[in-house]
Amino acid sequence: MLEGTKIHTSSQMGIIFDIAKDTVLFLLLSCYYILESLFWTLVPNAIRPMKSLKGDVILVTGGGGGVGSHLAIKLARLGAKVVIWDINKEALQKTCTALIEEGYEIASYVVDLADRASVYATAEKVKKEVGKVDVLINNAGTVFGETLLELSDTAIETTYKVNILSHYWTVKAFLPDMIKSGKGHIVTVGSVAGLLGTYRCTDYSATKFATVGFHESLFTELRAHGHNSIHATLVCPYYINTGMFDGVTPRLMPMLEPDYVAETMIDSIRKNEVNCIMPGSVRYLLPLKCLLPAKMCWDLMHRVMKGPQSMMDLKRKPKVA
């Protein structure tokens, strides 16, 4: 009996010692991480080391218009081999024409991201015709702009298929080759609406919350298995002036311009940043929803920011049959 007690006590002491050791190490490393973050925040991009994207095969979903089109053009100018996917053939051709006129090559594919089989089949075509994808930017998204009871079941399913389920198919298609080569970068375009629930966006916000969870879980899997050379960047922008949120009238902050968003995203990719929230000021407001009383948060959103009111004039999208 006494022996059993001694062994149990020894084991407990070992556990306590390990916890104390790891906690002290964590605190020491935290000081370094904070100083490092402050240092790189203060250093201008012009003089900080940025990885080159020249020669990299970069795939952008939703590359036919909006931020996706700006990304394709800017990445091509940096020397990347750009591949764009979109369901809109005319939009794809417009982006391709703009790049070809500048003297760049680009590969485009008409893909319905809501169709898993189409995603997998097109991914195989890209591998055969272009090569291994080095950077995957899951940028495509859709929104219908209806309240829950106005949303059709098909619209809800479409939003989930495009905004989050497609991320599973694209990552599963391209990540294995990244791991084999020891080089890769996965970029997930979420939204501030994926960090804070938004009026008339029960489908959109929910899928963007899901992209955040998907991306953060994927990041932990990559790090836990030692794939430190496979980078992952989560992008959460505020409303973007692309037409997706036509009619929205934000009170405190203007909509972001797609050119600015694309430029900021590329800088974030080249710096291997883990998180990219736009504008940066939003990251300081988000913790308030957990720290403040719920009634106070609602009053801040409804009375000061007028979030729901700003969404009431969102132009509805065509009904899905």
Question: How would you summarize this macromolecular structure in one to three sentences?
Answer:
Pfam families: adh_short (PF00106). This protein is an alpha/beta fold and 321 residues long. 53% of the residues lie in helices and 12% in strands.
Description:
With 321 residues, this protein is an alpha/beta fold. Helices cover 53% and strands 12% of the residues. The protein is built from 11 helices and 7 strands. It has helices at residues 2-42, 66-77, 89-101, 116-129, 153-181, 202-224, 258-270, 282-285, 288-291, 294-305, 307-311, and strands spanning 57-61, 81-86, 106-110, 135-138, 184-189, 230-237, 275-278. Strands 3-2-1-4-5-6-7 form a 7-stranded parallel β-sheet, sandwiched between helices. Helix 7 (258-270) links the parallel strand 6 and strand 7. Helix 2 crosses helix 7 (258-270), helix 4 packs parallel to helix 5 and helix 5 (153-181) runs parallel beside helix 6 (202-224). The longest helix has 41 residues, at 2-42. The protein is globular. 35% of the residues are buried.
Number of helices: 11
Mean pLDDT: 89
Q: Strand sequence of the main sheet, in spatial order?
A: 3-2-1-4-5-6-7
Largest sheet: 7 strands, parallel
Fraction in helix: 40-55%
Order of helices and strands: HEHEHEHEHEHEHEHHHH
Number of strands: 7
C-alpha end-to-end distance: 73 Å
Strand portion: 5-15%
Helix/strand/pairing class, anyone? Answer: alpha/beta
Which regions are unreliable across 5 or more consecutive residues at pLDDT < 50? 1-7
Rg, nearest Å: 22 Å
Shape, per Cα inertia axes: globular
